[in-house]
C-alpha cells in the first residue's frame, strides 16, 4: 500500500507525486506536499498580486485599470470590491463591482484590502 495521502477533495487513493505536489488522477486536484504534511490544505488556494492568501468574504482593491468585455466600461485602479467569492478557473474571483455589476476577476489584478 502506498504511503501517499488520499486526495482531500475526492478521497481517491491513487495519488502520485509530481515535483513538490501531490496529484489525484481521479479528479485532477493538485495540492502542495507542505500543506499536506501540515494538514492545512482546504482545497482552493487563491493568492493576490502581493502573495497574500484570499478567502471568501474578503475585500480587495483593483491594482490595474480593467476593461469590461462587451462594454465600454472600465474598472478603475483603486476600486474596492467587497465580499468576494473564490471559484475554480482562470478568473478565480466572483464578485459584484459597484456601478458595473456581477463579474469575475483574476486574482493577479487585485490586492487584499
Automatic annotation (TrEMBL):
Transmembrane segments: none annotated. Residues 4-32 form the Protein YjdM N-terminal domain. It holds the Pfam family Zn_Ribbon_YjdM. InterPro entries: YjdM (IPR004624), YjdM_C (IPR013988), YjdM_N (IPR013987). Coiled coil: none annotated. Residues 46-113 form the Protein YjdM C-terminal domain. It comes from the Bacteria. Belongs to the YjdM family. This is Alkylphosphonate utilization protein. The lineage of its organism: Bacteria, Pseudomonadati, Pseudomonadota, Gammaproteobacteria, Cellvibrionales.
Amino acid at each position: 500500500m502506498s504511503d501517499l495521502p488520499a486526495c482531500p477533495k475526492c478521497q481517491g487513493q491513487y495519488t502520485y507525486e509530481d515535483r513538490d505536489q501531490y496529484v489525484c488522477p481521479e479528479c485532477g486536484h493538485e495540492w502542495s506536499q507542505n500543506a499536506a504534511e501540515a494538514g492545512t490544505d482546504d482545497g482552493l488556494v487563491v493568492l493576490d498580486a502581493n502573495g497574500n492568501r484570499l478567502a471568501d468574504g474578503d475585500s480587495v482593491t483593483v491594482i490595474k485599470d480593467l476593461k469590461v468585455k462587451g462594454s465600454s466600461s472600465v474598472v478603475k485602479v483603486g476600486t474596492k470590491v467587497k465580499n468576494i467569492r473564490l471559484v475554480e478557473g482562470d478568473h478565480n474571483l466572483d464578485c459584484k463591482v459597484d456601478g458595473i455589476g456581477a463579474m469575475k476577476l483574476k486574482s493577479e489584478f487585485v490586492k487584499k484590502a
